[in-house]
TrEMBL record:
GO terms for biological process: NAD+ biosynthetic process. Belongs to the L-aspartate dehydrogenase family. Keywords: NAD, NADP, Oxidoreductase, Pyridine nucleotide biosynthesis. This is L-aspartate dehydrogenase. NAD(+) binds at residues 122, 188. It comes from Comamonas piscis.
Length: 265
């Protein structure tokens, strides 16, 4: 299968490393903006020598697209790829907090007679949540807790010095839609939990900067006709990007392998 990888940062590079020996998965193209071409070429030379580094998904020779780039890449690359009939795996799930974008993705996939797959990424339990939704959910709460440095470059910096935080600090409380829009690099999980469960406007989210933790913690509490569950993930962050958990990479690789494996779990 010929793959186009969109984005070649922390997730993209780690993904290339993991799939480099997968016989069924050939990375044919790496799609990054003009300013990132040189960096991506250096990574490609090492981990995917057969890949061309380009600015848009090639018009021919691609069977499957995997996005690990950021919210803007969904409109820019994923929508047109779906329309052309290419199945797409998406990590930047928070992009679906933009009103109308889920419907646009569905329409594009329908037009191309294909599918867009939103990966679980850094969170677990999405299968249970999506199944529980069928019986009816009463409440879903998500709490994201990361070390202060993971909140740099976000609205969490407004009115506070993250470097000198001494105690855990609530930096956001609201809906999953607001969280995903305000924290595009830190609240994709909030969007994923909400899309699997009660929706972007009925899923309550708390985001916390906590100097006492080293991992990225994700907690989900859900209750409904099925019963209830409480989930805590303690994810190792990637060295290349402390905002992003390593599990996100593994989740994307699992999705890719799921397209070629004879037995899928
Ligand atoms: N679903 C989940 O659990 C998670 C999802 N994510 C999503 O994955 C994205 C990437 O994460 P990292 O690799 O850690 O970020 P990163 O900042 O290390 O890398 C981003 C890469 O994408 C490229 N890029 C940026 N805009 C682009 C565009 N419009 N088209 C093509 N390439 C573009 C950059 O040049 C860079 O190569 C995040 O922005 C976030 O949206 C991140 C963590 C968890
Ligand atoms: O990787 C993580 O721990 C989660 C993350 O950044 C996000 O939800 O956007």
């Amino acid at each position: 299968m010929q793959i186009a990888l969109i984005g070649c940062g922390a997730i993209g590079s780690a993904l290339l490393e993991l799939v480099q020996n997968d016989a069924g998965l050939q990375i044919a193209a790496i799609v990054v903006p003009e300013g990132s071409q040189d960096a991506a070429r250096a990574v490609a030379q090492r981990l995917a020598p057969g890949a061309q580094v380009v600015q848009t998904v090639p018009a021919a020779g691609i069977d499957l697209v995997v996005e690990a780039a950021g919210h803007a890449a969904i409109t820019q690359h994923v929508l047109p790829a779906l329309q052309r009939g290419l199945p797409c795996i998406v990590a930047s799930v928070g992009a679906l907090s933009a009103p109308g974008l889920p419907e646009q993705l569905e329409a594009a996939a329908r037009a191309g007679r294909t599918q867009v797959q939103l990966i679980a990424g850094a969170i677990g339990g999405i299968d249970a949540l999506a199944a529980a939704r069928i019986g009816g959910l009463d409440s879903v709460r998500y709490t994201g807790r990361k070390p202060p440095q993971a909140w740099k470059g976000t609205p969490a910096e407004q009115g506070r010095d993250l470097d000198s935080l001494a105690v855990e600090t609530l930096i956001f409380e609201g809906t999953a839609r607001e969280a995903a829009a305000q924290f595009p690099k830190n609240a994709n999980v909030a969007a994923t939990v909400s899309l699997a469960g009660l929706g972007l406007d009925r899923t309550m989210v708390r985001l916390i900067a906590d100097p006492a933790v080293r991992e990225n913690l994700h907690q989900v509490e859900a209750a409904g006709a099925f019963g209830s569950f409480e989930l805590t993930m303690r994810n190792q962050p990637l060295t290349a990007n402390p905002k992003t958990s390593a599990l996100t990479v593994f989740s994307a690789v699992r999705a890719l392998r799921g397209h070629v494996a004879p037995l899928v779990i």
